Automatic annotation (TrEMBL):
SUPFAM superfamilies for the chain: D-aminoacid aminotransferase-like PLP-dependent enzymes
Cofactor names: pyridoxal 5'-phosphate
Pathway membership: Amino-acid biosynthesis; L-leucine biosynthesis; L-leucine from 3-methyl-2-oxobutanoate: step 4/4; Amino-acid biosynthesis; L-isoleucine biosynthesis; L-isoleucine from 2-oxobutanoate: step 4/4; Amino-acid biosynthesis; L-valine biosynthesis; L-valine from pyruvate: step 4/4
Lineage: Bacteria, Pseudomonadati, Pseudomonadota, Alphaproteobacteria, Acetobacterales
Protein name: Probable branched-chain-amino-acid aminotransferase
Reported function: Acts on leucine, isoleucine and valine.
Presence of keyword Amino-acid biosynthesis: yes
Gene3D superfamilies named among the record's database cross-references: 3.30.470.10, D-amino Acid Aminotransferase, subunit A, domain 2
EC code: 2.6.1.42
Main enzyme class: transferase
Family from the record: Belongs to the class-IV pyridoxal-phosphate-dependent aminotransferase family.
Single GO term (MF): branched-chain-amino-acid transaminase activity
Length: 361
């Protein structure tokens, strides 16, 4: 087992400064004092595990990540309960997905216990950065890059794994539901591609359609399948679900192009536990527009680690738009699921699944 050495920052953020930064943190803009770092080299394995002051990286301009894009990441959160204790939500699922992403991009596979160990070691040092407020949490960003110095197209033999931590509030600004732009020209992923891997390239390719969404007054973009441009795939950075008038919840099935969202999986299992009908089936965009217009689909929401569960008010595209419910407020099923999920994540509700992972600090 790799042991972490700790190098404390010589310029720690004061309690007063930290409180001011955490009062209204913009998502991904505020960071804690330290980061976890582990190195890998073929023939040596994982080594030099450290908690060090957060600082700029020094990498060679010929590092392979800069030229061939071997890079993966994860996203999860640490929560502070009413009793002051800190916990993680399903971190082992993130660790397993990180391994799967590494395998798809032909990168070194980080053992799951080392992934979890790096997060816990960082939390022990930066424990005071975990917010106590109900709508806030400490967002954790484990990522890995290839850093072999070599200009050739091959699997790299050196890697750098890092964990950053950032106190956050809500992902979307403002209240109520969000408008979503349906991209009819760009696609996110195809069968056999990297759609199931959590790699930066998937998100880089979504930025142009995301700008198109913004130009049309929307907060997010929705992608259709790459083959027929007919079926709903997922959104730019999260999964999507719909509520039918009978109260059932439906989402597109996994099939190689949709990220295996941990929040998505949690909602499906939690909903079934609550007695809701949870369905995974293909959803044609035309059918969704018609069903929303007739009231056969009454609610829609985005779901992901950052977004948690965020209501969608309407879909927009060049041919027109359609609202879900009144187009402004979250529906009852959406809020029922959101309240149940948030209560579970924060340790305020019973955990029948064993998903809440206490962290001894």
């Amino acid at each position: 087992m790799v042991e972490f050495t700790v190098e404390q920052t010589t310029r720690p953020t004061s309690a007063e400064q930290r409180a001011a930064l955490m009062a209204d943190p913009k998502f991904g803009r505020v960071f804690t004092d330290h980061m976890a770092v582990i190195r890998y080299k073929d023939g040596q394995g994982w080594y030099d595990a450290k908690i060090i002051p957060r600082q700029p990286l020094q990498i060679d301009p010929a590092s392979t990540v800069l030229h061939y894009g071997q890079e993966i990441f994860e996203g999860l959160k640490a929560y502070r309960g009413k009793d002051g204790a800190v916990s993680l939500f399903r971190p082992e699922a993130n660790a397993a997905r990180f391994v799967a992403s590494a395998r798809r991009l032909s990168m070194a596979e980080l053992p799951e216990e080392l992934f979890l160990g790096a997060i816990k070691a960082l939390l022990k040092v930066d424990r005071d950065w975990v917010p106590a407020e109900a709508e806030k949490s400490l967002y954790l960003r484990p990522f890995m890059i290839s850093n072999e110095v070599f200009l050739g197209v091959k699997r790299a033999n050196e890697y750098l794994f890092i964990v950053l931590a950032s106190p956050v509030g809500g992902y979307f600004s403002g209240n109520g539901s969000i408008p979503v732009w349906v991209s009819e020209h760009y696609t996110r992923a195809a069968i056999g591609g990297t759609g199931e891997a959590k790699c930066g390239g998937n998100y880089a390719s979504s930025l142009l359609p995301q700008q198109e969404a913004s130009d049309n007054g929307c907060s997010q973009v929705l992608f259709l399948d790459a083959k027929e441009r007919r079926f709903i795939d997922e959104m730019g950075g999260m999964n999507v679900m719909f509520v039918r008038k009978d109260g059932s919840v439906v989402t597109p099935p996994l099939g190689g192009t949709i990220l295996r969202g941990i929040t998505r999986d949690s909602i499906l299992k939690l909903g079934r536990h609550m007695g809701l009908t949870m369905v995974e089936e293909p959803l044609a965009i035309e059918d969704v527009f018609k069903a929303a217009a007739t009231g056969d689909i009454t609610e829609a929401f985005a779901c992901g680690t950052a977004a948690v569960i965020s209501p969608i008010g309407e879909f927009r595209r060049k041919a027109g738009s359609v609202a879900f419910g009144d187009g402004k407020t979250a529906g009852p099923v959406t809020m029922k699921l959101r309240n149940a999920l948030c209560g579970l994540q924060r340790g305020e509700e019973a955990d029948p699944f064993g998903w809440v992972h206490p962290v001894a600090l």
